[in-house]
Design brief:
The protein has a single domain, classed as Aromatic amino acid hydroxylase (Phenylalanine Hydroxylase). About 45% of the residues lie in helices and about 10% in strands. The chain has twelve helices and seven strands. The strands form two sheets. The chain has a five-stranded mixed sheet with strand order 4-3-6-5-7. Strands 1-2 form a two-stranded parallel ribbon. The longest helix is centred in the middle third of the chain and has 20 residues. The chain is globular. Bound molecules: 7,8-dihydrobiopterin and fe (iii) ion. The site of fe (iii) ion has 8 residues, from helix 5 and helix 8.
Length: about 290
């Protein structure tokens, strides 16, 4: 991450959302993105995600007012959205999560960036992340991740831990009786990757494996080469409950793996062909 500047003047980097200041055009951008993803995700997203969207009642009408979202979220899991100007430093990010606060950007992408932008915007942060924060098990996982992040910073293990966030919170898939479903926010906020991650033969789809994930590098500028599939949010929470200190010691003795690597020990749901996507130079929406 490049040097970040605290424009907020507050130690937690929070700002006011200033919901009244959004323009009509900005609300239209949100509505366009929302309508497109809602239709696409009906049979693709995890039922828990879709239940969260319904419960928040966010969102079909335009960029949501965080105060209204917080009424619902607070009652459901005690989580609270705080507005931030953009990416915040790792320690600030983890402090928020550990205290049941989700830092969300407030700006929305420009109309010509509907399919891709580098940094998280309010559509990614709110539509992508907040529906699952209504789910008690997932909410607890996010808090535990914040606490684990603060520990990993002290142990010099952030690179390993951040892969866990990437391959679960941002790009995770979940197995259901009706087949694979999406729960990762980087996917649900991207039209192209919402299709690619489930339908395309190129990427690996592997069973969740904590240490394997923390060894696996990732791409931030292209669709993922590997997706990891959980059986349920309980599995995620239970697997990450132990102290990670001995895991980091083990990982220090093992080589990192390429994003598209295959191991004999993988639980393979689909071994990717690795074929490069053709026909577009478009990148997926940022996470
Ligand atoms: N800041 N606003 C914001 N959003 C993020 O997702 C975020 C961040 N700062 C740090 C960060 N993510 C990651 O580096 C950690 O997940 C490791
Ligand atoms: Fe994100």
């Amino acid at each position: 991450m490049g040097a970040l500047v605290n424009k907020s003047g507050r130690p937690d980097w929070s700002i006011e959302q200033r919901w009244d200041a959004y323009t009509r055009a900005e609300h239209v951008t949100w509505k366009t993105l929302f309508a497109r993803q809602a239709a696409l995700l009906k049979n693709r997203a995890a039922p828990e995600f879709l239940a969260g969207v319904a419960r928040l009642g966010v969102a079909a009408d335009g960029i949501p007012d965080f105060r209204r979202l917080n009424d619902v979220l607070g009652k459901a899991t005690g989580f609270r959205i705080v507005a931030v100007p953009g990416l915040v430093p790792d320690d600030v990010f983890f402090e928020h999560l550990a205290h049941r606060r989700f830092p969300s950007t407030c700006f929305i992408r420009k109309p010509e960036q509907l399919d891709y932008l580098e940094e998280p915007d309010v559509f990614h942060d709110i539509f992508g992340h907040v529906p699952l924060l209504v789910n008690p098990v997932f909410a607890d996982y996010m808090v535990a991740y914040g606490q684990g992040g603060l520990k990993a910073l002290k142990q010099g293990a952030l690179e390993k831990l951040s892969r866990l966030y990437w391959y679960t919170v941002e790009f995770g898939l979940i197995a259901t009786r009706s087949g694979l479903r999406i729960y990762g926010s980087g996917i649900v906020s991207s039209k192209g990757e919402s299709e690619y991650c489930l339908d395309h033969a190129a990427p690996n789809r592997l069973g969740f494996d904590l240490l394997r994930i923390m060894r696996t590098r990732y791409r931030i500028d292209a669709f993922q080469e590997t997706y990891f599939v959980i059986d349920g949010f309980e599995q995620l929470f239970e697997a990450t409950r132990p102290d990670f200190t001995p895991y980091y010691a083990t990982l220090a003795t093992l080589p990192d793996l390429a994003a598209g690597a295959g191991l004999p020990t993988d639980r393979v749901l689909h071994r990717g062909t690795g074929a490069k996507r053709r026909g577009t130079t478009r990148k997926p929406a940022a996470s």
